[in-house]
Amino acid sequence: MKIQSDHIEKVNQPLLKQHQEDFSYLNNRLTSAGVQVDHVIDKLAQFQVAIPSWALGAGGTRFGRFSFKGEPATLEQKLDDIGLLHHLTQTAGAVSLHIPWDIPTDYKAIKEQAAALDIKFDAVNSNTFQDQKDQSASYKHGSLSNSSADARQLAIEHNKEVVKIGDQLGSKSLTVWLADGSSFPGQINFQDAFTHTQNSLKEIYNSMPADWSMFVEYKPYEPNFYSTVIQDWGTSLMLAQGCGDRAYTLVDLGHHLPNTNIEQIVSTLMLQGKLGGFHFNDSKYGDDDLTVGSIKPYALFLIFNELVQGMERNTNNPALSWMIDASHNVKDPLEDLIQSLEAIQTAYAKAQLIDHQQLRKAQNNHDVVQCQEILQHAYLTDVRPLLKEARKRGGGAIDPLMAYRGLKVREQLIKERGSNTVATGL
What is the pLDDT of residue 298? Predict the structure, then answer.
C-alpha cells in the first residue's frame, strides 16, 4: 500500500482550522517567553528515529504470539510499512536491521526501495541469543562469553558478517546485545566470562571499517536470572573503552532495574563522550517493552532534558543513533509505533522549551523550588501543536493515528497480504 500526498491532504483538511488556531496561540505564548518556535519545529523535523525491522509484526512472549494479520512477510514489505509510518509521521526515516532475520536478497533493489521511501539504514543488530538451523556450536551457555572457543568464534564471525551486510547498505554502526549470563550460582566464572567477552568484542571491533562504530548494550537480567555478563552501564562502558574510541555504550530505557536514574546515566556517558545510541520503550515492572511514554512520560522528559543538554554541550560525543525497541501482543504494531513516535517527539519538544540558562542559575543558587518549577513549566506545556506543525510542513499527517485509521491502512494491508502472513523476528 502507498499513501499519496493527496490522501494526506484529504485527511488533514478537516483539522486545519483548529490546528491553525491552536498553533497560533502556542506560537504567540512561546515567542513572548523568548522561545524560537521555528527553531524548535526545525529540530523536530530533523529528529529521525529508526524502526527495527522486527517491530512491524506482532510481538510475543515466551507463552504465545497473536498475529494482527497483514503482517509484512519480507524485508521489502517491512520497508513499505516503515515508509507508511514515515509518510504519516515524518519522523521514521530510518530502519535498523536485525540479522539473520532480515538479510537482503538483492542489495541494490533494497537500497533503491529505501531511498525512494526516504529511509536510511541505521545500526545493524547481530543475533547470538538464539541458535540458527544447523548451527555448528550452540549459544545455550553463552556466545561471546562462552567457555567454548568454538561457540565464541561462531558468534564473532556472525558479528563480522552482520557488519559486511550493513556496509553494503550504507550502515555505519553495529549494535551488540548479549543474552549471555547464568541462571544459577557457580554456573560460570564471572571474570572468565568478562574476559572472553572483551576479547571477542575487540576482535569484532578491529575487523570493522574505520568509519564504523560499535554500540555495546546492557541488561540487568533476562533471559538469565542470576547473572548477566553485560549487566549495567558501567560494564558496558568498560568493554567499550577496552575496544577503542569508536566503541560506545547503548542505553535501552527498559534495560534497568526499577527506579534507576536513567537520566543521570545518560548525562554521565555524554560527558565522557561515550553514549552511542538510545533505544526507546517503557515499562511498569521490568523490561516490559511497552509503548514509549505509556507508563513514565515524566521520566522520558527528564531523560530528554539531559539528552538535549548533552547534544549541545558535549561536542565530544558523536551524533546519537535512535531506535524504538518495543514489543507486545495486544496492539496493531503500526499504531503502537505511531504512538511511540508521538511520545518521543513530545518529550523532545518539551525538553527544548527548558530555559537552561535560568535553570543553571537556579541550580547555582541552590534554589531547589525554582529548579523544579522550570522543569515542570516545560513539561506541562501542551506542545502537540508544534508536532502537528512540523508534520504539516513536511507533508505528513496532522494527526497520524487518525489518518492511519481513516485511510484504513491495516484493512488494506490485509487485503494485499492476507491474514496468515507472519513477520520474521520475535
Answer: 98
